[in-house]
Design a protein that fits this description.
Blueprint: H1 9-12, H2 18-26, H3 29-33, H4 45-48, H5 61-69, H6 78-81, H7 89-97, H8 101-109, H9 115-121, H10 144-161, E1 183-187, H11 191-202, E2 206-210, H12 219-222, H13 231-243, E3 247-249, H14 260-265, E4 268-273, E5 279-280, E6 293-295, H15 296-305, E7 323-327, H16 331-342, E8 347-352, H17 363-371, E9 375-378, E10 380-387, E11 393-406, E12 412-425, E13 428-431, E14 435-436, H18 443-446, E15 449-450, E16 453-454, E17 468-470, H19 473-476, H20 481-508
Parallel strand pairs: 1-2, 1-4, 2-3, 4-17, 6-13, 7-8, 7-13, 8-9
Antiparallel strand pairs: 5-14, 10-11, 11-12, 15-16
Helix pairs in contact: 5-7, 5-10, 7-8, 7-10, 8-10, 9-10, 11-20, 15-16, 16-17
Length: about 500
Amino acid sequence: MNQNLYSGSEELVNRDAPWREELRRRLSTKERTTLPRVEMPEIATDYRIKCNDEVNQGLSIEQAVLEARRCLDCPDPGCMKGCPVANHIPAFIKNVERRNFAEALEVLSLTTVLPAVCGRVCPQEKQCEAGCIYNKMKKPPVAIGNLERFVADFNREVSRQEGYAPSVPTVAKIASPFFGGIRIAVIGSGPSGLAFAGDMAKRGYDVTVFEALDRLGGVLKYGIPEFCLPKDVVNAEIARVAELGVKFVKNTCVGTTLSFDELQARGFKGVFVATGAGKPRFMGIPGENLPGVMTANEYLLRYNAKAKEDIYGQNVMTLQRKRVAVIGAGNTAMDAVRAARRLGAEKAMIVYRRSASEMPAREEEVRHAREEGVEFLTLHNPVEYLADENGSLCAMRLQRMELGEPDESGRRSPVAIPGAIETLDVDLVVVCVGYLPNPPGELDERLHMRHGLISVDTESGRSSRPSIYAGGDIVRGAATVILAMGDGRRAAAAMSDAFARIIERASLS
C-alpha cells in the first residue's frame, strides 16, 4: 500500500531527523521505562450512570507529554505492525513529547481520517499496544490510544481553550492532476467508507459519499453511545474529511433509490461499497417475538437518537424499576447494558455462554460496566423467553454451560450441562449476538456473494466486478472500526493503482 499520500511525508516520519535523535538523548532507556503509565481521568461512577457524558475525560497537556516520554522510539516498532491503518505511531508520539501537537496531527493525518474516533473505540490492547516493547518488560504499554485521542482533541478544542493558535494539518495533497477528473462513488458513510473516501480525495479523485440515512457516520452515530463516543467528535472528524473535498449525499439508498447504472451514467468510474452489517440477528429460540425482546441495533438506535416512543411495549428511554438482560459480551453488548443503567434499570445483566476470560469486549468496556453495577452471568445461555398473562416478556429460561474442547477460533466451546436450567425474571432482553450483512439491493445479481457478504480479493478489496470494491463489515461480517478503516485504505490504494495502470496504458497506445 502507498502509505505516504502527502508531499514531504518522508520527513514527517523520519526517525533519523535531528530533533528525534536529540529527544532520544534527553532521557536514558532506564529513565523512560521507570516512568509509570499515565492513567486517563474518568468521571465518577455515581454521576456517570445518571447522564450520557463521556466517561473518559482525556489527558491534559502535561499528562500527554509525560506519557509520550515513555515511548522508546524503537527502530523496529512493534506497535506499527499491529495497527490496521499503519499509523506512524512513534513519529506522532515523539511530536507530543516535544509539544508539537500540530505536527503530531499531520503525522496521523498521513494514514487516518478518524484519529479522535480511533483513540476512543479501537481495541488498542489487542493491536498497537499489544506490540509495544513494554509488554516484554512486563510493564504497561505506552498508552497509544489515549495519545492519539489527545492529539485530535487538542487540535480541535483544547488549543482554543488554552489560547494557542488553532492547529490544522497544512501538508499539501499529493500531486496527481490526471486523477482530478475521475469520479468515485462511496456507498455508506461509516468508518470504512470514510477512510476510503479520505484516501482517494488525498490522491486527487472527485469523491462522493452516498448515505442511506439522514445522519452521516454509520455505526459511529447509530451504534456507539455518547458516553463512549460523543457525536460532536464524529461530526468534527467527518468535517475534516469534507475539507479534503469529499462530497456527501444523505437519504440516498444506492441499489434502491439510485441504481448502479445511474451511478455509471452520472460518470462515476469506480464504486466502493461500505454498507456494513446492520441487519438484526436472533438466536432462533422460542419467545423471540415477544414484546420486550429486541436486537441491539434497534435498541441502540433508539437510545442514540433519544427516541421517546415505545418499542414493542417498552419505552427504552424509561427503564426505571426494570430488569434488563443483554445477551452477548462484545463491545455492543457492553454499550447496551451500560445504556440500560443510564436509563434507570434496577438490574442490568450480561448473559454470556462462555467464561469471563473469553469475553470479546474491550477490557476498558468490561471494567466500566462492572464499575457501573452491571451483573455478569457467564456460562449461561438463553433457551426460551416466557410471557406473562398479557403476552409480554416476563422471564427467560437459561441453560447452564461448561467449557469443553476448543473450537476453530481456539476458544473452548461451551457445552450444556444436562438438566441445569434456571429461570430468571426480566422485563427487557436485548440480543447482541452479531449482525447480518446489509448489501445494496442490486449486488446479489452483479457480484459474487457468500452468505450475504461480498466476496473480494483480501489484499485489494476488489470484487468480481473490476470497477466495484468493498470493505468493512459488508466483507468481514461484524468487526471493529479500525479493521473497517484498514479495508478502506487498502481498497483506495488498490483502486488508485488500477486507474494509474489504465491511464499509463492509454498514454502508450
